[in-house]
């Protein structure tokens, strides 16, 4: 195993050198192109926990701005049951309770189970907690780690996934994330969860099955949620005109603690990172709530406290795939000057079912009369990464625009996930991982340099 790992590393390093001498590469990796199909309801990953009214679809997310609170959510199918979470620190026997609220919703002819959301507050940093939901012999126990206190040199590892869905490929992506020797401590999820809207009347039992599928990760580490287009569930033909209804009932975000007025855009601090989540499918024009919030948000980021400034959104701004080409353009026009001004380190998006990494580029000189509308190398700009390759039912987006634009450093239509290992205030090691490789293989690796503390050129292509 160790030897195998070393061999793989050598190959990866060799490839990596290949990247340095060439300009951007379109990977020639050959993969099988079987259509992704959803796992049937009878699959092992969708099993209901045994017992009457047993809690299912357990998931956690950060519950405040700094990581001392956790929102615990779950569903009971038969009756409301208890909304109490019992929790205790690993090294303590003192159990505490947090009681939350229950919500339900209807979608066309579907009626949801009882959706519980309870928030645990005032947790200690960097501590393992156990928690239990449910009552009597259907009580289920899980655990999580709180992040270390926010600080500039605190190492922390994020997992990155998007457009996951619930196919056999989705299961492989999640398995590869779990089995990756690089252990993610929280997931930055860039949107498109269940793809329930693929079914007639958006069969919302596919929201439930997705919750049961993802539980093996979401119950143990926080997933930071971004809304995608498959969260809209907007279907006027069946009277469903309230966008994001199932998603907003099922998934919570700590939006109020960052001064946001909507769950769809917000920010968190976690260890040495400041993560801003945007909504590609909410208004962002001038004077809109999201615009106004972001305008006030960027100046609040203190890079002496959180050196790494990361933005999540669903629809990518820089995408050289012909799928969803230029769909992110209107938001780019609105916000890109701020991203450069505030030296955002990394932008992660999904939507396109492939992988792509850009060089540091911007396209902000254009002013409608000067004709300067070509992206240029810009060391103050973020790297843009599209990681919408979770493996959902729509399959791969394997038709790229040709030729590959100069700004595109690496692109490939394969399913996978990524990890971002923040080492300290200057260095973060990033790896993209494809499902068809062994668990330890890194298909695209970069050491990113922080734009505030170490704004050196970290590009991988010759431009
Ligand atoms: C905490 O919740 C459990 C389970 O709901 C209950 O049995 C217990 O009495 C509660 N304890 C306190 C102190 O409220
Ligand atoms: C909803 O309606 C469709 C079509 O009439 C039907 O197939 C389905 O079983 C219904 N679902 C529920 C939960 O009633
Ligand atoms: C999903 O992946 C898990 C972990 O690898 C495996 O145990 C399970 O059998 C898989 N289920 C399906 C339906 O592929
Ligand atoms: C920024 O954070 C540092 C480190 O926590 C702190 O010393 C400094 O006062 C903060 N600056 C502002 C303007 O809040
Ligand atoms: C690939 O994209 C190009 C440009 O959008 C389009 O003209 C072409 O028809 C597409 N090919 C396939 C096989 O979808
Ligand atoms: C930051 O991390 C990088 C990569 O691990 C390392 O090379 C560098 O020495 C570290 N910087 C400091 C100040 O420790
Ligand atoms: Fe999407």
TrEMBL record:
Class of the enzyme per the UniProt entry, highest EC level: hydrolase
Similarity annotation: Belongs to the metallophosphoesterase superfamily. Purple acid phosphatase family.
EC number(s) on file: 3.1.3.2
Domain Purple acid phosphatase N-terminal: 55-146
Protein name: Purple acid phosphatase
Domain Calcineurin-like phosphoesterase: 157-355
Keyword Nucleotide-binding: no
Gene Ontology BP annotations: cellular response to phosphate starvation
Catalytic activity line of the entry: a phosphate monoester + H2O = an alcohol + phosphate
Lineage: Eukaryota, Viridiplantae, Streptophyta, Embryophyta, Tracheophyta
Key words, A-Z: Glycoprotein, Hydrolase, Iron, Metal-binding, Signal, Zinc
Alphabetized InterPro entries for the sequence: Calcineurin-like_PHP, Metallo-depent_PP-like, MPP_PAP, PAPs-like, PAPs_C, PAPs_N, Purple_acid_Pase-like_N
CDD domains: MPP_PAPs (cd00839)
Organism whose genome encodes this protein: Helianthus annuus (Common sunflower)
């Amino acid at each position: 195993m160790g030897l195998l790992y070393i061999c793989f590393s050598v190959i990866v390093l060799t490839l990596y050198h290949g990247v340095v001498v060439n300009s951007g590469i379109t990977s020639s990796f050959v993969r099988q192109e079987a259509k992704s199909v959803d796992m049937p309801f009878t699959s092992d990953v969708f099993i209901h926990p045994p017992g009457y009214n047993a809690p299912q679809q357990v998931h956690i997310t950060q519950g405040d701005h700094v990581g001392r609170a956790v929102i615990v959510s779950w569903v009971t199918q038969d009756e409301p049951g208890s909304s109490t979470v019992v929790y205790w620190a690993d090294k303590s026997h003192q159990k505490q309770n947090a009681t939350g609220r229950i919500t339900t919703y209807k979608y066309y002819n579907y009626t949801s189970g009882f959706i519980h959301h309870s928030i645990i507050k005032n947790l200690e940093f960097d501590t393992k907690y156990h928690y239990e939901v449910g009552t009597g012999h259907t009580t289920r126990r899980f655990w999580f780690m709180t992040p270390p206190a926010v600080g500039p040199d605190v190492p922390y590892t994020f997992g990155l996934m998007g457009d996951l869905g619930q196919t056999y490929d989705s299961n492989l992506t999640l398995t590869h994330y779990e089995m990756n020797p690089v252990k993610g401590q929280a997931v930055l999820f860039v949107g498109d969860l269940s793809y329930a809207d693929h079914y007639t009347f958006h069969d919302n039992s596919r929201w439930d099955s997705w919750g049961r599928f993802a539980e093996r990760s979401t119950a143990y580490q926080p997933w930071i949620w971004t809304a995608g287009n498959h969260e809209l569930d907007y279907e006027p033909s069946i009277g469903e005109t309230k966008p994001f209804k199932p998603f907003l009932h099922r998934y919570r975000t700590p939006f109020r603690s960052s001064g946001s007025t909507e769950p769809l855009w917000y920010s968190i601090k976690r260890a040495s990172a400041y993560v801003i989540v945007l909504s590609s499918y909410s208004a962002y024009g001038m004077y809109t709530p999201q615009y106004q919030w972001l305008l006030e948000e960027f100046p609040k980021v203190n890079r002496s406290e959180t050196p790494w400034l990361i933005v999540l959104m669903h629809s990518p701004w820089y995408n050289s795939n012909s799928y969803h080409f230029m769909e992110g353009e209107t938001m780019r026009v609105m916000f890109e000057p701020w991203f450069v001004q505030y030296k955002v380190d990394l932008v992660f998006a999904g939507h396109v079912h492939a992988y792509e990494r850009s060089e540091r580029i911007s396209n902000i000189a254009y002013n409608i009369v000067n004709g300067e509308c070509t992206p240029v190398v810009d060391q103050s700009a973020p790297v843009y990464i599209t990681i919408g390759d979770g493996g959902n039912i729509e399959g791969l987006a394997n038709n790229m625009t040709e030729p590959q634009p100069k700004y595109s450093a690496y692109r490939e239509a394969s399913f996978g996930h990524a990890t971002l290992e923040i080492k300290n205030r200057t260095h973060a090691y990033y790896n993209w991982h494809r499902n068809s490789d062994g668990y330890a293989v890194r298909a695209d690796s970069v050491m990113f340099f922080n734009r505030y503390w170490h704004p050196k050129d970290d590009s991988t292509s010759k431009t």
